[in-house]
Every structure is written in C-alpha cells, then in structure tokens.
Write a structure and sequence with these properties.
alpha+beta, Immunoglobulin-like, TSP-1 type 1 repeat, 2 domains, six-stranded antiparallel beta sheet, five-stranded antiparallel beta sheet, 3 helices, 15% helix, 29% strand, immunity, cell adhesion, extracellular matrix, Spondin-2
Length: 331
Amino acid sequence: MNTTRNILSSSVALYHLIVMMLTLGQGVHSLPVPTDVPMCTASETAQYRLTFSGKWTQAAFPKQYPVYRPPAQWSNLIGVTHSSDYHMWQRNEFASNGVREFAEKGEAWTLMKEVEAAGERIQSVYGIFSAPAVMGGTGQMNTEFEVFARHSYLSFMVHLVPSPDWFVGVENFDLCDGDHWKENVSLELFPFDAGTDSGFTFSSPNFETIPQDKITQITSSFPSHPANSFYYPRLKHLPPIAKVMLTKIKKTNQIISLNSNNILFNTHKYQKYTPLDCEVSVWSPWGLCKSKCGDSGVQHRTRYIIMHPANNGLACPLLEEERKCFPDNCL
C-alpha cells in the first residue's frame, strides 16, 4: 500500500513539475532547429492523442508474475517531441543518468533536466508531456501533444513496476510523412533492459551492472538465463507487453495539453495465454543401496519442482528414479 501511495505521489508531483517547465520554457523549445536531415514539409502543426494500453497479464507472462508488494503496474509516462538530432534513449547505446534513474526507479527528475538542457543547448526539444501511472498491469493512460515540421519526432518511456531496470517506449518515431501528418499509428511495445542493473527477475534486489551495458531489447531467449522473468524458450517471440495508439486530432490553439487520465479495464477475455513449461532441479546423488549382502538391491535419487506448469505448458517429468545396485563394503 505504501508503494502504491509513493507512486501516486510521485506521479502528481511530476505532473506539476512538467506544467511549470512548459510554462517557463515554451519560448525556448519552439525555436528553429538546424539539421542536415531532410525535414518534414507539412505546413501546419498537428495535435495527437496518445493512448497507452498495458497488456502485462499473468496469462501472457506467467513466469514470476508479480502479484503483490508491489503488483504489476506501470509508472507515469514521460514523452518528448523533438527534432531528428535529439535522442531521449537509443537501443544499443548507453543510457544516460536520467534514463537510468527512470528505468530503475521510475524517478524522472534527472531525465527532465536532461531534456530541458537539450532544448536550451541545441534547440532540439519542442515539448515535454506526461501521463499518470497505471496501478495495474492492464489499463490505459492517455494524453495529448503537438508537433510541427521542424520537430516531428516522438520519444517516450514507461517503467515496468517492479523490475530491475526494464521499460517500454518509443525512440525517435517520425509522425510526418513528407508534406502531411500520419493520421493513425498503432505500435506494439516490448520490454527493454537499460543495461544498468543485472537483476534477472521482476523483484530482484538491486545489483548494479559494472561496467554498464548498452540498452537492449528483451526477448523470449535473451537474456538466455533460465531464471530471467521473460525467458520462454518455446516462444519465437514474446507477446507485446503494451500497445500505444497515436491519433491525429483536430488542432487547438493550445501548444500542448496536459489533460491526461488512466482507465483500468479487463483484457482477460481477449488475452492470449503464454504456455509456461514445468521446470525441475537437477537430480540428487544416488542414495544408499538397500539390500542384503550378496543380493542386488535398489537405490533412489530425486529432484524437485522449481516452477509448476501453466497455460498448457509441458507437464513435470518424474521426480524420482530407482536402479538396481549391489551394496559396497558388504561383510
């Protein structure tokens, strides 16, 4: 309960910080952005509604699914509209300190300062926006933002709670298509590892990665360690853990709208189930040979269940074996 209150308090505080930064910084962020990349030629600005939908269910991700302390949920969303020369985060590149703090803890203060500094230094950031946290693995949050020809790119991040340093997001997505704006965009989202914490499971304790790794996408087979919460070797691809819809809406005179909300909803009726195979330990050593001197006997070995199967996954194999033996040191 305390964790949930902290997340809600952080989300509200962050919301007010963004309002303040936008109020003070609109003039700076809207300056022209020099770039050698061919730019969008759309003559008007465009306003979009972003709808984030969580699909993090126990049916889709049964392995070590967090059900309490805290249960599966999503942090607030932090987004930026910008030019092509700015990168909030990049796969196969190192995370900044701001990205690190957000990916590990859902804390956005340093990330916000980095975004603000980039807008002032290289005039590449146009707007900053946010949506509040979703207190569940499934649910929606939405917000609105504006783009224009020189700043037609979108990037955002949402932290998985709980997780070591995992997040979902979009990096440098161009909403412009030549001389016009894209009307509707639907993107499936998959988890990323920020490369700053080496925990394998959703609830792993802090275990700093030294030296720091690059940001990588998590798949059903990478990282390949069986303890990893997303390790499903029978699957070719992970199911999407979230989805985002970008819908062009009628333009208003407001530069950016901070009206946002989140809606809990039930997706179990439509959810695909990910099979989870049984996992067992290695065999124990063979036990003592039980027999009379001169006669053959029987000895046993055992193993135990590490993880029970779910969603029609492979059943557990035999947990006990026996074999014939002859006693040693028989007198």
